[in-house]
């Protein structure tokens, strides 16, 4: 008799079975998160003392690092950091002595952790093994230990693992009985025989920190003794199929037979595409088996890319003949990322990589985020800035990053965990040679199915027999796995070329040639003509901005920004504390201008295929490299928004080709417009227009270009514009905007126009190029003097100023020039009434600022502010001036170390600034606030600066070889 149950009861019964099923699934996994017993082993006594047999006395919370748990040593001058120090002057300079005192240690090179420890540490936890786990395969999984781990179950050592790239897995003994057992971990974060390089971002204190602990998922799982060891999916778009390679294993070298069923379906698409299941037999002999299954994906497939990141989930189910069952899920995308000639293609469409370098900056924890949401945030912010690509400098991110990048549609270049330099090398027969293969194989096995994993390099800038080693490395991977592209290493321009690279990540075709007048016509074509494969710029940019001291309060985690605190206090000691924010904003505007012009130069270069910025966000190590338009937390600093940045760094960017940005009003503004378009598809009959306005919005001219279809490529010529400038009578800042009508794509540039003939200013100002007797007499009688001090400065002569800002930072490169971060001025100051300017460097300042001397005002009165103030490197914080005014005796003096004066042929901006200053000096508004003795002014021409940079040690890197001499 069949009983008919009401529908509601059927649903309840189904739910009950589902709950029971889920409970059984959960029972197969035990979380090990929580309190562990703990003990450090600084003297390596634990093995001899068999600490795995004892009850460890301390407590620690895992997942987590020792530093997060406030375990380890206090920071002192003798802390044994992991990382090179290129400038050890911090340890010797008398000015910095107060930051070397106990209780006030402030390290300028990187962030300061709450505690620091390098060595062995022991972790211990009791677990209860369920009786239901009998005859199952039991695995201890530790995600992201750092870095060598040995494991004991009770008093039996079950394995050792050493990896920076994947979770460490340890099989428990098959005969382990149910009941209480003790797991003991010995984790060692020292560099030992396998030396990946102390500056590798996988372990260096420059970035995430060389922490000790386990920071990801920690589980004990039980499963079938017949199991999937590996599943790799190889999409074939042409055939609309996927080849699935499976590696099977059976415990205790058993043999087994059974069936495997593959199911697949899309899961993040508007409509779910279900793939017809495939079932095949399998056979395992002596514990191992392998098979390849062709999985037809159906007549309709969805592909993965940056615009439509469609994903599939493959469910592989193994059922052995004796009833054992194993299920494994694999995420993958139907995509093909290839190099075709000198171009990248994604699914047959050209792609331009707009990337940033991730340097493993995680300032709250000191280790990479282990959750998907955190990485989704990073990739979304990057996309909001127009980017589609990320390189991971000498480290591989955790699995969460790949999952997030798959979801968002982001192309990744993880690397082996090595910067084999500064104490390491490759190709010299050292253990690292094999370790790189082991690590990259682990990466491919664990993350190879993720669609975002498009590129791979050994790591960063190595030493050693690199050409031979990396050529073999490329050959190995090209033969093994065609799902991604391979380059031996990401390198600067002086590294040798690896001939079989599938793409180049190199310097050499980057930077701005602003030793000459800025323009937007030149390209990098000459620098890349030797390469026959796609070229990606290595570590583009590296333009610094001044520190944002408001950021200090964000460091609420394991790290403190003691470097920022030092720089802030030092700025105060140099009487400029009230200018910190202004320095940030002015230097940031120049930084953004540099990034804009360098990115646009890349976009207009034929056969250029991408750039990797160093970087979109700040790098708090290597001397504190404030190269990002975002801070280390991926937050905006206030001087450029994501929307503004995206105008010149996007899938589609209008570009202007113009020979200069400064004109006189007897000239014609001749410019050409082109477009770089790497969107989802060609834009049919695109209509472009342009508009030229004054700074206050007054229309000067506008125009339209003939409609044109934009193919997916760059260097698409649109047309020219020619605007006579004779209607502009006074010095004027213009803005030229080019738009692709009906789209979000637009870009703009500032243009300056000055009168070709500047009227002579008639006043009683005495102009001189030396403080001669007449100048002194004029001042003594209450007159006004304009002193052009260009080329005569001694106090400040050591400061090298160019229009470009500091590169990376002056500490890491031992004060390599340039030393300044642009200029600061007050646009509302009457001195600039006839010289339109913002408060920061822009193109009109180039001919005035570039290679001009600056003056060090170290002996000037407290509170003294110049009219034009170069912003010094934050490592020295010198109070600098390029133009200042002062009362001297009864008179008034204006001094310029930039070459300003009559007869400046071919320098319209300099002429105009001189004219504006002359007008100002002849007006009632010329009334300097501060009295400065003439002797103080003269001293600028006679006496070197008291504060001079001194390395104290000459090696590179210094490695603190004479650190013991410090107090």
UniProtKB/TrEMBL annotation:
InterPro entries: Bact_Beta-galactosidase, Beta-gal/glucu_dom_sf, Galactose-bd-like_sf, GH, Glyco_hydro_2_cat, Glyco_hydro_2_N, Ig-like_fold, Ig-like_GH2. Keywords: Glycosidase, Hydrolase, Signal. Residues 1-27 form the signal peptide. GO terms for biological process: lactose catabolic process. One of its GO terms (cellular component) is beta-galactosidase complex. It comes from the Bacteria. It holds the Pfam family Glyco_hydro_2. Residues 226-335 form the Glycoside hydrolase family 2 immunoglobulin-like beta-sandwich domain. Residues 342-539 form the Glycoside hydrolase family 2 catalytic domain. GO terms for molecular function: beta-galactosidase activity. It catalyses: Hydrolysis of terminal non-reducing beta-D-galactose residues in beta-D-galactosides. Its EC number is 3.2.1.23. Residues 31-215 form the Glycosyl hydrolases family 2 sugar binding domain. Belongs to the glycosyl hydrolase 2 family. PANTHER family: BETA-GALACTOSIDASE (PTHR46323:SF2). This is beta-galactosidase.
